[in-house]
Specification:
By secondary structure, this protein is α/β, with parallel strands linked by helices. About 50% of the residues lie in helices and about 10% in strands. α6 packs across α7 (about 140-155).
Protein backbone atom coordinates (compact mmCIF):
# COMPACT_ATOMS: atom_id res chain seq x y z
CA UNK A 1 0.00 0.00 0.00
CA UNK A 2 3.03 2.28 -0.27
CA UNK A 3 3.09 5.20 -2.66
CA UNK A 4 6.36 5.91 -4.42
CA UNK A 5 6.88 9.53 -5.29
CA UNK A 6 9.91 10.20 -7.50
CA UNK A 7 12.27 13.06 -6.73
CA UNK A 8 11.09 16.27 -8.30
CA UNK A 9 13.21 18.59 -10.41
CA UNK A 10 12.45 22.17 -11.35
CA UNK A 11 12.99 21.98 -15.11
CA UNK A 12 12.98 25.74 -15.74
CA UNK A 13 16.78 26.16 -15.39
CA UNK A 14 17.39 23.17 -17.66
CA UNK A 15 16.97 24.21 -21.27
CA UNK A 16 17.85 21.16 -23.36
CA UNK A 17 21.17 21.32 -25.21
CA UNK A 18 21.32 18.36 -27.61
CA UNK A 19 24.61 16.45 -27.84
CA UNK A 20 26.95 17.66 -30.57
CA UNK A 21 27.96 16.00 -33.83
CA UNK A 22 31.59 16.10 -32.70
CA UNK A 23 33.34 12.91 -33.89
CA UNK A 24 35.29 13.03 -30.59
CA UNK A 25 32.46 13.44 -28.07
CA UNK A 26 32.82 14.93 -24.61
CA UNK A 27 32.00 12.55 -21.75
CA UNK A 28 31.17 14.25 -18.46
CA UNK A 29 31.35 12.54 -15.06
CA UNK A 30 30.71 14.38 -11.77
CA UNK A 31 31.63 12.24 -8.78
CA UNK A 32 30.63 13.39 -5.32
CA UNK A 33 32.87 10.55 -4.16
CA UNK A 34 35.27 8.92 -6.65
CA UNK A 35 35.22 5.51 -5.00
CA UNK A 36 31.44 5.34 -4.64
CA UNK A 37 30.84 6.58 -8.19
CA UNK A 38 33.44 4.30 -9.81
CA UNK A 39 35.49 7.14 -11.28
CA UNK A 40 38.56 5.02 -11.98
CA UNK A 41 36.43 2.75 -14.19
CA UNK A 42 35.04 5.77 -16.04
CA UNK A 43 38.59 6.99 -16.70
CA UNK A 44 39.71 3.51 -17.82
CA UNK A 45 36.74 3.11 -20.18
CA UNK A 46 37.25 6.55 -21.72
CA UNK A 47 40.94 5.80 -22.31
CA UNK A 48 39.79 2.93 -24.57
CA UNK A 49 37.60 5.23 -26.69
CA UNK A 50 38.06 8.26 -28.91
CA UNK A 51 36.52 10.72 -26.41
CA UNK A 52 37.42 13.66 -24.24
CA UNK A 53 36.62 13.28 -20.54
CA UNK A 54 35.64 16.08 -18.16
CA UNK A 55 35.58 15.01 -14.50
CA UNK A 56 33.60 17.73 -12.75
CA UNK A 57 34.37 18.11 -9.06
CA UNK A 58 35.08 20.80 -6.52
CA UNK A 59 33.30 23.59 -8.40
CA UNK A 60 30.16 25.61 -7.59
CA UNK A 61 26.92 24.03 -8.83
CA UNK A 62 26.29 26.70 -11.48
CA UNK A 63 29.75 26.15 -12.98
CA UNK A 64 29.19 22.40 -12.85
CA UNK A 65 25.85 22.79 -14.63
CA UNK A 66 27.57 24.83 -17.37
CA UNK A 67 29.99 21.95 -17.87
CA UNK A 68 27.10 19.45 -17.96
CA UNK A 69 25.55 21.53 -20.78
CA UNK A 70 28.66 20.94 -22.93
CA UNK A 71 28.48 17.15 -22.48
CA UNK A 72 27.73 14.81 -25.35
CA UNK A 73 27.47 11.81 -23.00
CA UNK A 74 27.15 11.68 -19.21
CA UNK A 75 28.33 8.85 -16.96
CA UNK A 76 26.72 8.92 -13.51
CA UNK A 77 27.84 6.02 -11.28
CA UNK A 78 28.77 2.35 -11.48
CA UNK A 79 27.98 0.93 -8.03
CA UNK A 80 24.69 2.13 -6.50
CA UNK A 81 22.23 0.52 -8.89
CA UNK A 82 20.13 3.64 -9.31
CA UNK A 83 20.59 7.14 -10.68
CA UNK A 84 20.94 10.30 -8.64
CA UNK A 85 20.13 13.97 -9.10
CA UNK A 86 23.17 14.44 -11.37
CA UNK A 87 21.64 11.97 -13.83
CA UNK A 88 18.26 13.72 -13.64
CA UNK A 89 19.84 17.12 -14.28
CA UNK A 90 21.79 15.70 -17.21
CA UNK A 91 18.67 14.08 -18.63
CA UNK A 92 16.81 17.40 -18.22
CA UNK A 93 19.54 18.95 -20.38
CA UNK A 94 18.80 16.35 -23.06
CA UNK A 95 21.94 14.30 -22.53
CA UNK A 96 22.25 10.52 -22.84
CA UNK A 97 23.15 9.12 -19.42
CA UNK A 98 25.07 5.91 -18.75
CA UNK A 99 24.90 4.39 -15.28
CA UNK A 100 24.53 1.14 -13.38
CA UNK A 101 20.87 0.28 -12.83
CA UNK A 102 19.58 -2.79 -11.04
CA UNK A 103 17.29 -4.62 -13.51
CA UNK A 104 14.44 -5.11 -11.04
CA UNK A 105 14.39 -1.39 -10.28
CA UNK A 106 14.14 -0.60 -13.99
CA UNK A 107 11.16 -2.95 -14.36
CA UNK A 108 9.37 -1.57 -11.29
CA UNK A 109 9.93 1.96 -12.53
CA UNK A 110 8.49 1.14 -15.96
CA UNK A 111 5.44 -0.43 -14.31
CA UNK A 112 4.96 2.42 -11.85
CA UNK A 113 5.47 5.36 -14.21
CA UNK A 114 4.40 3.82 -17.51
CA UNK A 115 7.67 4.75 -19.18
CA UNK A 116 11.06 3.05 -19.27
CA UNK A 117 14.06 4.94 -18.00
CA UNK A 118 16.10 5.79 -21.11
CA UNK A 119 19.36 5.46 -19.23
CA UNK A 120 22.00 3.31 -20.95
CA UNK A 121 22.83 0.60 -18.40
CA UNK A 122 26.43 -0.33 -17.68
CA UNK A 123 28.62 -1.95 -15.09
CA UNK A 124 32.29 -1.25 -14.51
CA UNK A 125 33.04 -4.26 -16.72
CA UNK A 126 30.71 -3.22 -19.57
CA UNK A 127 31.14 0.56 -19.52
CA UNK A 128 33.41 0.89 -22.57
CA UNK A 129 31.07 -1.32 -24.60
CA UNK A 130 28.01 0.61 -23.44
CA UNK A 131 29.64 3.93 -24.37
CA UNK A 132 30.90 2.79 -27.79
CA UNK A 133 27.58 3.07 -29.72
CA UNK A 134 27.02 6.56 -28.28
CA UNK A 135 30.57 7.57 -29.14
CA UNK A 136 30.19 6.31 -32.70
CA UNK A 137 26.75 7.77 -33.42
CA UNK A 138 25.80 11.41 -32.88
CA UNK A 139 22.27 10.50 -34.02
CA UNK A 140 22.00 7.90 -31.24
CA UNK A 141 23.29 10.45 -28.71
CA UNK A 142 20.58 12.89 -29.77
CA UNK A 143 17.88 10.19 -29.80
CA UNK A 144 18.69 8.98 -26.27
CA UNK A 145 19.10 12.58 -25.11
CA UNK A 146 15.65 13.52 -26.40
CA UNK A 147 14.13 10.45 -24.72
CA UNK A 148 15.91 11.45 -21.52
CA UNK A 149 14.34 14.92 -21.54
CA UNK A 150 10.90 13.44 -22.26
CA UNK A 151 11.33 11.04 -19.33
CA UNK A 152 12.19 13.72 -16.77
CA UNK A 153 9.32 15.88 -18.04
CA UNK A 154 6.88 13.02 -17.51
CA UNK A 155 8.23 11.53 -14.27
CA UNK A 156 10.34 14.09 -12.40
CA UNK A 157 8.93 17.53 -13.29
CA UNK A 158 8.45 19.25 -9.93
CA UNK A 159 4.88 20.34 -10.76
CA UNK A 160 3.82 16.81 -11.70
CA UNK A 161 5.52 15.39 -8.61
CA UNK A 162 3.74 17.94 -6.40
CA UNK A 163 0.40 17.01 -7.99
CA UNK A 164 1.07 13.32 -7.33
CA UNK A 165 1.98 14.06 -3.74
CA UNK A 166 -1.23 16.06 -3.25
CA UNK A 167 -3.23 13.19 -4.76
CA UNK A 168 -1.66 10.78 -2.28
CA UNK A 169 -2.48 13.07 0.67
CA UNK A 170 -6.07 13.46 -0.53
CA UNK A 171 -6.47 9.69 -0.78
CA UNK A 172 -5.40 9.09 2.83
Amino acid sequence: EAHVIPPGLDLRPFTPVPPSDNPRPLVVHAPSNREKKGTRYVIEACEQLDVDLDVVEGVPHEEARDRYRRADIVVDQLHAGWHGVFALESMALGKPVVTYLKPDVVERSAEGYGIRIPIVPATKETLAGALRPLVESAALRREVGAASRAYVERVHDIDRVADRLLDVYRSL
